[in-house]
Amino acid sequence: MRNDWRVRAKAVALTAATALTAAAVLGGAAAPKASAATAVSVTVNGTAGLGTIPSGAVGLNTAVYDSNMNDTPIPGLLKAAGINALRYPGGSYSDIYNWQTNVAQGGYDAPNTSFANFMGTAQAAAASPIITVNYGTGTPALAASWVQNANVTNKYGISYWEVGNEVYGNGTYGANWETDAHCQTSSGTPVTVGSEPSQTYGCGPAVYANNVLSYMSAMKAASANAHVCAVLTTPGGWPDNVTNPQTSPLPWNQTVLTALGSKTDCVIVHYYPGGSGAAGMLTDTSDISGIISTLHSEISQYAKVDPTTVPILVTETNSNVDMDTQPNALFAADMYMTWLENGVANVDWWDEHNGPGTNPPSVVDGAQDYGDYGIFSSGGNNSGVTEPAVETPFGPYYGIEMLSKLGGPGDTMVNSTSSNALVRVHAVRRAGGNLDLLIDNEDPGNPYTVNLAYNGFTPAGSPTVFTFANNGNSITSATQSSASSVTVAPYTLTVVQVPGSGGGGVTAPGTPGQPTVSGLSSSTSGNSSGIATLTWPAATPGTYPVADYQVYRQSSGGGSMLVGTTSATTLNLSGLTIGAGYTYDVVAVDSHGNPSLPSPPVTFTVPPPADASCAVHYAISSSWSGGFGAGITVTNRAATAVNGWTLTYSWPDSGEAVQSGWNGTWSQSGSAVTVASAAWNGTIAAAGGSVSVGFNGTDTGQDPAPTVFSLNGTVCANN
User: Fold this and answer.
1) Which of 25, 92, 125, 296 could crosslink 78 through cysteines, CB 3.0-4.6 Å?
2) What is the pTM of this model?
3) At 652, phi and psi to the nearest 5?
4) What is the dihedral of CA 474, 475, 480, 482, to 10 degrees?
5) For 498-521, what is each residue's pLDDT tens digit?
6) Concatenated DSSP letters for 528-557?
């Protein structure tokens, strides 16, 4: 069955967002004629760990309206692609689906799509289930009974349970594609399920958060090990930071996380970047690190818990461009790895089968695109174009399958850099020490000779090269003699598996555990810098005993610098720059000089000093496509008044800029912003006096808050 519900839901969401385009394509223009391969330099840093690949990391959505969901070939196809997580019951249907009766109120349930049917496929595919319980028309008791059935009666051990799907799409912000029976109409009457108005009331983020707490209590009573996840808006995407005095006086994420507080168990975001065409879509993955940084900041600021302890799951993702062809295969591989390198626990593609899209199919670089969100054909027809036979894989399937050639659960992701932005790279150190490299050539017209350099790794054999070529329908492999270079054709995915090690031919020490940071603080006394202490679990010895631990600081450019060597499992850090972000990992070295794989990284930002003579409160007040508004309040904590003031700060994202401001004279140079007092507000009274300024700004999708504000040259505390 074609998924009309999902297509309609996405269309509403995209209209509201305005920043995404549902059907931008390359229009079938032939790619430029390939030129001679030019050189690209790629460096892999084996000492710069990005964490291990989690189990259940590479996921896929399933849907109860998909009559092919549990077809006989599906488990084998999923295993072959390395897909090891399945989400159920599918998108917006989650908020109308009763798992006990296998009925979706107002929707269609295909035969053989019950929870028991789904679990049969998940178990046959060795995939971890992720369940979205019914928030829209369900109850905490209904959700708890599902947890009881799954984890107690049947002992499935399902870890992640979401409370609702895209709940913010319930009409709170004037766009309604998500059913929510908690909502009211403008006259105060309950909404009619199936014919909800576009603007609803009484069901905003505060109501959702309080209900999540009720769901959490009931579900954890059934199984204490269940992670109960709350839905957040994706930073930089609609309706992130949108407010409304009646329905959402504070932003969704701030409201939900503040209410959950220390009970924040895990969080969910969705990611449909789109872009204005293939080239734009392929660059959108550069926003992912900013999205994660903002989520971590929000979890820390509002929930007041360590964000590294809160799993983040991306339970729906796809592009909205060239969906069944090579550009989306390139996007899929790069997107999954970028999320995982930034520490998410799971990423789930939308979806298994979906059917051809509502827009006329198009030809992309000689290949037929059906506008189908699925990774497998449903055999449907649209505008006179018929899809291939049911279960035929589309391009993104092979993009995901290439990840299984790169690494698997427990393998260590390490930093890699490319000298050409069109050649994206990701690297993984296998448990046995070998190194695998994914090369994503996003140039449709040019091949490249990729020259490979390695730090902390020594090649020792002939690499195996896997290739998914433009418009291919399978992955090919070959062996080459050189580990120092590989040529990649236009619009191809390539995995180079390089035998070798980080040391001699003996067993190296085990990987040190995840470092943690404690004692993180700064002060205005002395040189106004920060201090912290790193601590990590000891590595297990290999052939020889562990002699030392080397602590590396990673740079934003992909390099790493040795900052200390110690025989202990702790290291004190000092001289840290206030407001700066730092990333460290640890390598164990045995008594014969053999290094381990790098530990997972720890990342932190040095906070402003708590003892500062001034404090600043920064808050985004509104957000729209391409822009946002914010207010800043400066408080004078000193015993004497401030007469004439200048406030300075820098944007953390290069796309942020001040467009217009008030209550001061605003200027910007590069990323640095200066606000000088106006003639009438130059005095800030002593011991608690304050002044407020505000501005409207522009952004390119992300608008994270500045980390350091200075008043007349003095660093202020965050308030």
Assistant:
1) 125
2) 0.87
3) -80, -20
4) 140
5) 998 754 457 889 999 999 999 988
6) -EEEEEEE-PPPPP-SS-EEEEEEEEEPTT
